[in-house]
Amino acid sequence: MIKRILVGLGDADHSITAVRQAIDLCKRHGAQLTAVTVVDHRGLENVGPVPIGGGAAAQGLRDHRHQLTREIIEKAVSSCEQECSKHNIDFHLIYEEGDPLDTFCHSARYQDLMIISKQDSLFDHGVINEPSDELIRMVHEGIQPILVLPKVTDEIKRVLIAYSGSMESARTMKQFIRMHLWPDTKICLTMFETEEKEALDEAAEYCRAYKFDVETYYSTKSPKNNLLPFADEWGADLMVVGNSAKNLMMRKLFGETAHHVMRHAECAVFMAQ
């Protein structure tokens, strides 16, 4: 059961996908929606080394960034409000200035599900467009569960769960199954490079107990090089992977698989502890 959903608003184009997915889940579960947006003044002010005589140009760039950020936020917030009003969704906005990660962590404390869009940096609002480790930092801080969406998201009908047989992996699987976000989805439980194949059948029976349609896939190949290709081949709309608060569970069990999934998956990704 979920009753509170938090959406991170980045740029308007990415945000609208996250908002619409959140609204769909709110309607399914009778949940409230909270949107959070943050102005990171420190990031906007950082324009790199300024040469002698370049102070005015640097300040002009800072002013432009701040103005553009305000415009982008206004557009994203307006779109969110319009969508929520159209669907009669209970909506609350958190608009803060400061450190984006601290703000998101605080906002997520009493939420059941966090939804963000996959972009270079969520809270630079597309103004700076520099690669960021924002998502990795969220995972490290133990923010979970997180639903990470690409810019364009299909209806979620097919879910691939990356399962290792470990206790951590079982917790992730059970949390996703018990949340029953999309009850009518087809589930594929996958296991790579492990000797615990019998655990896959036991996990499948657990999922079936919650009335899900489940199939399994087992491979002795490396997950890092084969998990995403299989997800594409199977037609996954969503991948479920796990983490722990202090490290990435998938990194420990599957090498760099979690990083690879987060960076390169074309479908949505659900991450939980």
Report Rg: 20 Å
Major β-sheet profile: 10 strands, mixed
Q: Under the CATH scheme, which class of the largest domain?
A: Alpha Beta
**Share of residues in strands:** 15-25%
Number of strands: 10
Q: Structural class from helices and strands?
A: alpha/beta
Low-confidence stretches: 244-255
In one word, what is the shape?
globular
Q: How helix-rich are the residues, as a percent range?
A: 40-55%
The tally of helices reads: 10
CATH homology group of the largest domain: HUPs
CATH architecture of the largest domain: 3-Layer(aba) Sandwich
Oligomer: single chain
In short:
The protein has 273 residues and is α/β, with parallel strands linked by helices. The protein has helices at residues 12-29, 41-45, 55-86, 100-108, 134-140, 167-179, 197-209, 223-234, 249-254, 257-264, and strands spanning 4-8, 32-39, 91-97, 113-117, 146-149, 158-162, 186-192, 213-219, 238-242, 268-272.
